Design the sequence.
Protein backbone atom coordinates (compact mmCIF):
# COMPACT_ATOMS: atom_id res chain seq x y z
CA UNK A 1 0.00 0.00 0.00
CA UNK A 2 1.39 3.40 -0.99
CA UNK A 3 2.35 5.62 1.94
CA UNK A 4 1.47 9.27 2.35
CA UNK A 5 4.30 11.66 1.49
CA UNK A 6 5.86 13.19 4.58
CA UNK A 7 5.54 16.95 4.70
CA UNK A 8 9.06 18.16 5.48
CA UNK A 9 8.88 21.95 5.20
CA UNK A 10 8.29 22.48 8.93
CA UNK A 11 11.50 20.55 9.59
CA UNK A 12 13.58 22.32 6.92
CA UNK A 13 12.12 25.85 7.20
CA UNK A 14 10.92 25.99 10.82
CA UNK A 15 7.46 25.41 12.27
CA UNK A 16 6.55 29.12 12.08
CA UNK A 17 7.85 29.78 8.56
CA UNK A 18 4.46 30.91 7.25
CA UNK A 19 4.45 33.81 9.73
CA UNK A 20 7.83 34.91 8.46
CA UNK A 21 6.46 34.78 4.91
CA UNK A 22 3.76 37.35 5.72
CA UNK A 23 6.15 39.81 7.41
CA UNK A 24 6.50 42.98 5.31
CA UNK A 25 10.25 42.53 4.91
CA UNK A 26 11.58 42.52 1.33
CA UNK A 27 13.82 39.49 1.92
CA UNK A 28 11.44 37.37 4.05
CA UNK A 29 8.07 38.36 2.60
CA UNK A 30 6.45 35.90 0.18
CA UNK A 31 4.04 37.78 -2.06
CA UNK A 32 2.85 34.54 -3.66
CA UNK A 33 1.91 32.92 -0.34
CA UNK A 34 0.48 36.09 1.21
CA UNK A 35 -1.76 36.58 -1.85
CA UNK A 36 -2.88 32.98 -1.64
CA UNK A 37 -4.04 33.46 1.94
CA UNK A 38 -5.65 36.85 1.37
CA UNK A 39 -7.63 35.40 -1.53
CA UNK A 40 -9.08 32.81 0.89
CA UNK A 41 -9.93 35.60 3.33
CA UNK A 42 -11.62 37.53 0.52
CA UNK A 43 -13.84 34.65 -0.58
CA UNK A 44 -15.01 34.15 3.02
CA UNK A 45 -15.62 37.89 3.30
CA UNK A 46 -17.66 37.90 0.07
CA UNK A 47 -19.71 34.95 1.29
CA UNK A 48 -20.51 36.62 4.62
CA UNK A 49 -21.57 39.86 2.89
CA UNK A 50 -24.31 37.92 1.12
CA UNK A 51 -25.24 35.67 4.05
CA UNK A 52 -28.42 36.60 5.95
CA UNK A 53 -27.49 37.35 9.53
CA UNK A 54 -23.83 38.11 8.79
CA UNK A 55 -20.99 36.36 10.63
CA UNK A 56 -22.26 36.15 14.22
CA UNK A 57 -22.05 32.78 15.99
CA UNK A 58 -20.45 30.88 13.12
CA UNK A 59 -17.90 28.07 13.47
CA UNK A 60 -15.01 27.97 10.97
CA UNK A 61 -12.58 25.08 10.53
CA UNK A 62 -9.20 25.20 8.76
CA UNK A 63 -8.32 21.67 7.56
CA UNK A 64 -4.54 21.24 7.49
CA UNK A 65 -4.09 24.53 9.34
CA UNK A 66 -0.34 24.11 9.92
CA UNK A 67 0.97 26.94 12.09
CA UNK A 68 -2.41 28.69 11.87
CA UNK A 69 -1.43 31.62 9.66
CA UNK A 70 -4.67 31.54 7.60
CA UNK A 71 -6.73 31.51 10.79
CA UNK A 72 -4.56 34.36 12.07
CA UNK A 73 -5.43 36.46 9.02
CA UNK A 74 -9.11 35.50 9.29
CA UNK A 75 -9.10 36.57 12.94
CA UNK A 76 -7.55 39.93 11.99
CA UNK A 77 -10.39 40.41 9.50
CA UNK A 78 -13.40 39.16 11.52
CA UNK A 79 -12.29 39.63 15.12
CA UNK A 80 -14.23 37.56 17.65
CA UNK A 81 -17.37 37.19 15.52
CA UNK A 82 -16.39 33.75 14.21
CA UNK A 83 -15.27 30.83 16.40
CA UNK A 84 -12.06 29.44 14.89
CA UNK A 85 -10.91 25.81 14.78
CA UNK A 86 -7.89 24.11 13.19
CA UNK A 87 -6.68 20.58 12.61
CA UNK A 88 -3.23 19.48 11.45
CA UNK A 89 -1.03 16.38 11.73
CA UNK A 90 2.06 18.32 12.91
CA UNK A 91 2.28 18.70 16.69
CA UNK A 92 5.06 21.27 16.27
CA UNK A 93 2.96 23.43 13.94
CA UNK A 94 -0.08 23.14 16.24
CA UNK A 95 2.04 24.41 19.16
CA UNK A 96 2.90 27.53 17.13
CA UNK A 97 -0.75 27.99 16.15
CA UNK A 98 -1.86 27.85 19.79
CA UNK A 99 0.68 30.51 20.75
CA UNK A 100 -0.31 32.82 17.89
CA UNK A 101 -4.10 32.42 18.31
CA UNK A 102 -4.77 31.31 21.91
CA UNK A 103 -8.52 31.89 21.61
CA UNK A 104 -8.86 29.40 18.71
CA UNK A 105 -9.32 25.64 19.14
CA UNK A 106 -6.66 23.32 17.68
CA UNK A 107 -6.50 19.55 17.37
CA UNK A 108 -3.65 17.38 16.15
CA UNK A 109 -5.01 14.81 13.70
CA UNK A 110 -5.21 13.85 10.04
CA UNK A 111 -7.60 14.98 7.33
CA UNK A 112 -9.12 11.52 6.91
CA UNK A 113 -10.49 11.45 10.45
CA UNK A 114 -11.47 14.96 11.47
CA UNK A 115 -12.13 14.78 15.21
CA UNK A 116 -15.38 16.73 15.25
CA UNK A 117 -19.01 15.59 15.12
CA UNK A 118 -21.23 15.62 12.04
CA UNK A 119 -22.93 18.85 10.93
CA UNK A 120 -20.71 20.97 13.17
CA UNK A 121 -19.19 23.74 11.01
CA UNK A 122 -20.66 26.64 9.03
CA UNK A 123 -17.45 27.36 7.10
CA UNK A 124 -14.47 25.15 6.16
CA UNK A 125 -11.30 26.42 4.50
CA UNK A 126 -8.20 24.55 3.40
CA UNK A 127 -5.15 26.03 1.70
CA UNK A 128 -2.56 23.90 -0.10
CA UNK A 129 -3.35 20.64 1.65
CA UNK A 130 -5.36 18.49 -0.77
CA UNK A 131 -2.43 18.14 -3.19
CA UNK A 132 -0.41 16.47 -0.40
CA UNK A 133 -2.83 13.60 0.31
CA UNK A 134 -3.14 10.27 -1.50
CA UNK A 135 -6.92 10.12 -1.12
CA UNK A 136 -8.37 13.59 -1.79
CA UNK A 137 -11.93 12.26 -2.12
CA UNK A 138 -11.66 10.77 1.36
CA UNK A 139 -10.51 14.14 2.71
CA UNK A 140 -13.47 15.87 1.03
CA UNK A 141 -15.85 13.22 2.39
CA UNK A 142 -14.69 14.05 5.92
CA UNK A 143 -15.18 17.77 5.28
CA UNK A 144 -18.64 16.98 3.93
CA UNK A 145 -19.40 15.00 7.10
CA UNK A 146 -18.45 17.74 9.58
CA UNK A 147 -20.19 20.60 7.73
CA UNK A 148 -23.77 21.73 8.19
CA UNK A 149 -26.28 21.85 5.37
CA UNK A 150 -25.54 24.87 3.13
CA UNK A 151 -22.11 25.25 4.76
CA UNK A 152 -19.51 27.26 2.83
CA UNK A 153 -16.40 25.34 1.74
CA UNK A 154 -13.26 26.92 0.21
CA UNK A 155 -10.39 24.65 -0.94
CA UNK A 156 -7.23 26.09 -2.54
CA UNK A 157 -4.58 24.21 -4.52
CA UNK A 158 -2.01 24.82 -7.27
CA UNK A 159 -3.13 24.33 -10.88
CA UNK A 160 -1.38 21.43 -12.57
CA UNK A 161 0.67 22.36 -15.64
CA UNK A 162 3.28 19.56 -15.82
CA UNK A 163 3.03 15.78 -16.26
CA UNK A 164 4.34 15.12 -12.74
CA UNK A 165 3.90 17.28 -9.61
CA UNK A 166 6.24 20.25 -9.78
CA UNK A 167 6.67 20.10 -5.99
CA UNK A 168 8.12 16.82 -4.69
CA UNK A 169 6.02 17.21 -1.52
CA UNK A 170 2.85 16.91 -3.60
CA UNK A 171 1.14 13.55 -4.07
CA UNK A 172 -1.06 14.87 -6.86
CA UNK A 173 -1.73 18.18 -8.60
CA UNK A 174 -5.05 18.91 -10.32
CA UNK A 175 -6.19 20.32 -13.63
CA UNK A 176 -9.09 22.75 -13.27
CA UNK A 177 -11.76 20.42 -14.67
CA UNK A 178 -10.49 17.50 -12.56
CA UNK A 179 -10.63 19.53 -9.35
CA UNK A 180 -14.06 20.89 -10.21
CA UNK A 181 -15.43 17.38 -10.72
CA UNK A 182 -14.25 16.00 -7.37
CA UNK A 183 -15.66 19.07 -5.58
CA UNK A 184 -18.99 18.59 -7.34
CA UNK A 185 -18.92 14.93 -6.36
CA UNK A 186 -18.65 15.85 -2.68
CA UNK A 187 -20.78 18.99 -2.45
CA UNK A 188 -22.97 19.04 -5.59
CA UNK A 189 -21.62 22.33 -6.95
CA UNK A 190 -18.40 24.23 -7.57
CA UNK A 191 -17.41 27.81 -8.32
CA UNK A 192 -13.78 27.95 -9.43
CA UNK A 193 -11.66 31.06 -8.88
CA UNK A 194 -8.35 31.10 -10.78
CA UNK A 195 -5.55 33.37 -9.64
CA UNK A 196 -1.74 33.88 -9.58
CA UNK A 197 -0.62 34.40 -13.22
CA UNK A 198 1.72 31.57 -14.16
CA UNK A 199 4.48 33.74 -15.65
CA UNK A 200 4.93 35.76 -12.46
CA UNK A 201 4.72 32.58 -10.36
CA UNK A 202 7.58 30.97 -12.29
CA UNK A 203 9.74 34.09 -12.23
CA UNK A 204 9.13 34.54 -8.51
CA UNK A 205 10.62 31.14 -7.69
CA UNK A 206 13.62 31.42 -10.00
CA UNK A 207 17.07 32.37 -8.73
CA UNK A 208 19.83 33.89 -10.89
CA UNK A 209 23.63 33.72 -10.46
CA UNK A 210 24.89 37.00 -9.04
CA UNK A 211 28.21 37.69 -7.29
CA UNK A 212 28.80 33.96 -6.84
CA UNK A 213 25.38 33.34 -5.27
CA UNK A 214 21.93 32.41 -6.57
CA UNK A 215 19.71 35.43 -5.93
CA UNK A 216 15.90 35.46 -6.42
CA UNK A 217 15.96 38.87 -8.12
CA UNK A 218 12.38 38.79 -9.41
CA UNK A 219 11.14 37.81 -5.95
CA UNK A 220 12.69 40.91 -4.41
CA UNK A 221 11.37 43.17 -7.18
CA UNK A 222 7.84 41.75 -6.84
CA UNK A 223 8.04 42.07 -3.05
CA UNK A 224 9.04 45.75 -3.35
CA UNK A 225 6.13 46.41 -5.71
CA UNK A 226 3.73 44.70 -3.30
CA UNK A 227 5.01 46.13 0.00
CA UNK A 228 5.85 49.72 -0.96
CA UNK A 229 3.68 50.47 -4.01
CA UNK A 230 0.67 48.27 -3.30
CA UNK A 231 1.01 46.52 -6.69
CA UNK A 232 0.16 42.84 -6.25
CA UNK A 233 1.09 40.86 -9.36
CA UNK A 234 -0.57 37.72 -7.98
CA UNK A 235 -4.07 39.12 -7.92
CA UNK A 236 -6.56 37.47 -10.30
CA UNK A 237 -6.28 38.81 -13.84
CA UNK A 238 -9.38 38.92 -16.06
CA UNK A 239 -7.33 39.36 -19.24
CA UNK A 240 -5.60 35.95 -18.93
CA UNK A 241 -7.14 32.61 -19.86
CA UNK A 242 -7.14 29.47 -17.69
CA UNK A 243 -3.85 28.20 -19.11
CA UNK A 244 -2.08 31.31 -17.81
CA UNK A 245 -2.98 30.88 -14.13
CA UNK A 246 -1.17 28.84 -11.48
CA UNK A 247 -3.55 28.69 -8.51
CA UNK A 248 -7.23 27.99 -7.92
CA UNK A 249 -9.76 28.09 -5.13
CA UNK A 250 -12.83 25.88 -5.43
CA UNK A 251 -15.82 27.29 -3.57
CA UNK A 252 -18.80 25.07 -2.80
CA UNK A 253 -21.98 25.22 -0.77
CA UNK A 254 -22.96 21.87 0.69
CA UNK A 255 -26.02 20.18 -0.82
CA UNK A 256 -26.98 22.81 -3.36
CA UNK A 257 -27.96 22.07 -6.95
CA UNK A 258 -25.09 21.09 -9.25
CA UNK A 259 -23.50 23.90 -11.19
CA UNK A 260 -20.05 24.83 -12.47
CA UNK A 261 -18.59 28.31 -12.86
CA UNK A 262 -15.06 29.28 -13.94
CA UNK A 263 -13.98 32.78 -13.13
CA UNK A 264 -10.97 35.10 -13.00
CA UNK A 265 -12.07 37.70 -10.46
Sequence:
Amino acid sequence: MEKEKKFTKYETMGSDYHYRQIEKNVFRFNSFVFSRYTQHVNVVKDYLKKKPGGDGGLKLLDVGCGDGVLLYLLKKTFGQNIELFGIDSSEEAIMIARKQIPEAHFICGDVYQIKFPENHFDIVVSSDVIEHVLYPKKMLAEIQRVTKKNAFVSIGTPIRFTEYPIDLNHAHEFFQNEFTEIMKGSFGNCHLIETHPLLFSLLYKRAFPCFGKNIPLFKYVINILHIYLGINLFEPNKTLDSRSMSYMIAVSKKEEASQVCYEHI
